[in-house]
Amino acid sequence: MSAQTTSKAGPAGFVSSRRWLLWSGIAALCAWVLVPIYLVALGALGGRQGVYQWPKTGLPTGVSLDPFILFLKTEGVLQSFLNSLGAAGITVALSILLGAPAGYALARYNFHGKDSYRLLVLLTRAFPLAILALPLTVSFIKLGLYDTIIGVGLIHTVLALPFAALVTQGIFMGVPRELEEAAWVFGCTRVQAFFKIVAPLALPGIVATAVFAFVISWNEVFAASVLTVRNRTLTAYLLTVLSESPMHYRFAGGLMLILPSVVFIFAVRRYLFAIWGISSK
Amino acid sequence: MTKNRSWIPYLLILPSVAFLALLFIVPLLQTIWLAFSDNGVPSPANAQRMMADINFTRSVKNTFLLTIAVVPVQLAIALVMGTMVAKVGRGRETILWVWTIPLGISDLAAGLVWLSILQNSGYFNSLLLGLGVLERQASWLSYQTPVALFFAIAVAEIWRGTAIVMVIIVAGLNQVPKEFREAAEIFGAGPWTRFWRITLPLIRPALQSALILRTVLAFEVFAVVYALGGRNFPVLVGEAYTWQNQNQNYGVAAAYAVLIMIISLAATLIYLKAIKVDPERLP
């Protein structure tokens, strides 16, 4: 691809100026993504003095971990962090347990109602979360699920499950059917063949799906805020204390929300495009 | 595909269908009922109360303006990113990873990130001071500066939401056969013609998914706004949140939710009609 453009583009000066333009464009867009994250990290690590320092330089002066640790020790922060982990854990477990079998059915069988099922799954993407969270408050109060991490996990699963079903469909389609059939010939039952042959091959993709379910739950704000009072997730906690907390606490909260997600997106970067390529096919 | 033992696929999808019926279909119907009833009788009272609310018109206007401002810019940036990265050999993976980082960042965190830049003693004002444009701290996020607040929120949304469009577009571009572009090149088509006549029509399914997803998400904008402007910039989801949490009025909150749903569905239908895609290539 690149060799072609080079050979077509004529004089060498022109070529290099085009390359230069391309790379400066790429660098600018990378900076557009990274610099704001760097700046909020400075805000989180600069503490009270950092916030009021004027004018700011953008250099890491007076930065230490103490303000961030102080934020972690604030009442409610650690608990809401654990709550976030709990809700995300439930979301991951449920969306894989319910979504992966559906994905397998979509990948391997032709059945009546397959299209209606896919429509149901896709519809969930077109509806705002607000429409689910409001009446669930009432039902959850009746069921004793209001203000619990299980309740939050359940509603986050509504978001992650359709995604898990569609993505695992693509992953199971990528496992050659012949391998599974060979296992049947050699005397495995369907269940055995699935766990011995298909599951190990699909595992990395399923782990990537799980990571996505985790990030979906970790980042969700609205439902978590509406459905909890004391057992808040980190996002819900930050949203409700937002107006009364000092600036550097807000930045520390922002950084704390960002760090795990960035690590997780890094872990699944190879799957990102495959996943969306499949689910938008 | 196996046809015998046809109960197996139903057994496999049953748990997820039951789950979505209980936690998606039922609440959906409940919200619609909640919005259009009053004390158990059908009534337009909630909808009327919503429309009489002082923030109603502003929140509708703000949500629409924000969507109109944000979505096209995100699509344009995503297309530029996709075209650029197609020309890169080594380093492609790293660049793509950096560009997808915002995908993992919540709207609340994105709001807080831009708050650190745009607050009064923040980096943006420092930069303007350094350039000699400003003499003292200016405030961009107050109720007295609605236009600046609008741009601040739009920038934060563009920063956060472009990644998902980019991922879908790059995935779509990857599926375009190389031969098409090479053929066009042989017949003398320039880069612009190739882009408009070959690439863009071929990535229609990706464009459609990206636009639907991004537009629906843009109508749901809430936490970015809340982090940057508090309640100075009313949007639809924010109003639903306030009616539910502060006013404890589930009916009006539900009316807002239904309104957002109607707008989202209308937008989806418009995209489905406007960007025609082979039925076989639909998701």
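DSSP finds 13 helices and no strands in chain A.
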